[in-house]
Design brief:
Keywords: 4Fe-4S, Endonuclease, Hydrolase, Iron, Iron-sulfur, Metal-binding, Nuclease
Number of helices: 14
Radius of gyration: 19 Å
CATH architecture of the largest domain: Orthogonal Bundle
Number of strands: 0
Organism: Sulfurisphaera javensis
CATH topology of the largest domain: Endonuclease Iii, domain 2
GO molecular function: 4 iron, 4 sulfur cluster binding; endonuclease activity; metal ion binding
Protein name: DNA endonuclease III
Strand content: under 5%
InterPro entries: DNA_glycosylase (IPR011257), HhH-GPD_domain (IPR003265), HhH_base_excis_C (IPR023170)
Structural class: mainly alpha
Largest sheet: none
Bound molecules: iron/sulfur cluster
Number of domains: 2
Helix content: 55-70%
Length: 239
């Protein structure tokens, strides 16, 4: 059941109108997204994911990034690329010890070497396309939770899926002035945007950018590009 904020907090804006306003703002603020590591480009490009070049690089980064700074992950991917080991079929043939040596510097590198090896073997056996379409199999892989799985489906397989995320839940809750869960945020977005993969990518990239730039637990509303739209800013910060 939805936990509502006090009625006076709610915005008069409808959720679908809000989604279109956000999309419009993100389209006009691509530079802000770029600074947060999201490259708004051709819908089918892998470069949305901070300029990574291949599906395999995105999958490898999604295992390495947990509890690790993105800059370190990106350097590790570049090193793998130079060694021509930025490919899951090649990683599947390496031993866990060899993978550990390659990814030292990443937090929990031993656990991640094991996870990477498992992922590489599964992809080799099942095929990447089949795996990404099989949501249950994807989410059963160690180290891949709901958000990562759904982000891979969207950004690698171009499936019309909006990833559940804490950022989407927090930001839509604050903008609309009512508590919205991750699942509710996903449903609102998918019911509004349907199967427009470009808009789904843009919205996810934009929302993560706002979450990492302004909308922290203690939000920096005065700098936020959405303060004029935001119920939280209007009723909590300004009042
Ligand atoms: S104005 Fe404040 S609460 Fe609203 S989205 Fe921006 S940072 Fe979050």
């Amino acid at each position: 059941m939805k936990r509502a904020h006090p009625d006076k907090m709610k915005t008069s804006l409808r959720a679908d109108d809000l989604i279109f306003k956000l999309l419009d703002a993100f389209e006009k603020n691509k530079e802000l997204l770029r600074k947060a590591g999201w490259i708004v480009t051709d819908v089918n490009s892998y470069e949305w994911w901070d300029n990574l070049k291949t599906a395999d690089e995105i999958l490898i980064s999604s295992i390495l990034v947990q509890m690790t700074k993105w800059e370190i992950v990106k350097k590790t991917i570049e090193k793998l690329r130079e060694l021509n080991l930025n490919r899951l079929d090649k990683i599947a043939e390496l031993s866990e010890n060899e993978i550990e040596e390659l990814i030292k510097g990443i937090n929990f590198y031993k656990t991640k070497a094991r996870r990477l090896k498992k992922l590489a073997v599964i992809v080799k056996e099942k095929g990447l396309e089949n795996l990404l379409k099989d949501e249950k199999a994807l989410k059963d892989i160690e180290g891949i939770g709901d958000e990562t799985a759904e982000a891979l489906q969207l950004f690698v397989a171009n499936l019309p899926v909006f990833p559940r995320s804490t950022y989407a839940s927090r930001i839509l809750s604050r903008l609309l002035g009512e508590e919205i869960s991750k699942q509710e945020a996903k449903k609102i977005v998918e019911n509004t945007i349907h199967d427009d993969v470009y808009k789904l990518k843009l919205l996810h990239a934009g929302i993560v950018t706002i979450g990492k730039t302004y909308c922290f637990s203690k939000p920096k509303c005065n700098s936020c590009i959405f303060k004029d739209l935001c119920a939280y800013y209007k009723h909590v910060v300004k009042s």
